[in-house]
Amino acid sequence: TLDRESYRSTLEEYAFSSLVDGSPLQTLFLSLADRVQDFKGAVRGPHGAKEARQHWNSTVATLVSCGGDTARTKETLESLAEALRTEGNIPGAHVCHIGARRMLERDDPASKIVLLGADHRSSKGRRTGFSSAACAFLTLMFDGSFKAKTDPVVSASLLPFMFSFAVSLVDNGELDMASSYCDLTLSTMQAYESAQKGMNLRYSRAFLLQLQEFDTRLRKKHGIKERGSGI
């Protein structure tokens, strides 16, 4: 019977001696060996890096499901995100950042947000890439799946896209539902404002006030009833 350390060492040795560097299968074995940080070393070579980029979605799925919610797993996902970003695969990098529970909480002009399903080729040089309400909904669902157990509110950087649903609802004649969606978004903004008093959150009050102004203009333009209290 192998002890835990011998078991890990055996898996790690097999991963590097017999499996393709940077492949999802190698990532799985490194995760089982609790050596997910070694994935960074595996993708430094040209072949390993190419393999990881080509099969990034399977690699991310492996890291998220098997790597655990650890600092090492998050660091590995961020390393893969950077590799994908330099290749122009912004949606892939975005998925990695969400998986690492990082990027979307930052109110930073240098950050890049591209919605899942959006065409990244049309978003070069722009801070945000918006394709459709469906893309925003997919991103919100993906983000929420990671935050459901720890944080009931939407990531701050996704709040502007919630208003896109309200516009789509107005276009389809659903004014009451659009009003409810605006109310939900405003409530989320107020929850952030309340939490900010006791937490070191990474977005500014100016960001929230800008969103509130957008909420007011949106309601006025489309005839959506006002909710009342502001931030």
UniProtKB/TrEMBL annotation:
Belongs to the SEC16 family. The keyword Endoplasmic reticulum applies. It is found in: Endoplasmic reticulum. It comes from the Eukaryota. InterPro entries: Sec16_Sec23-bd. It holds the Pfam family TPR_Sec16. Its main location: endoplasmic reticulum. The keyword Cell wall biogenesis/degradation does not apply. Residues 2-223 form the Sec16 Sec23-binding domain. One of its GO terms (biological process) is protein localization to endoplasmic reticulum exit site. Signal peptide: none annotated. GO terms for cellular component: endoplasmic reticulum exit site; ER to Golgi transport vesicle membrane. Keywords: Endoplasmic reticulum, ER-Golgi transport, Transport. This is Sec16 Sec23-binding domain-containing protein.
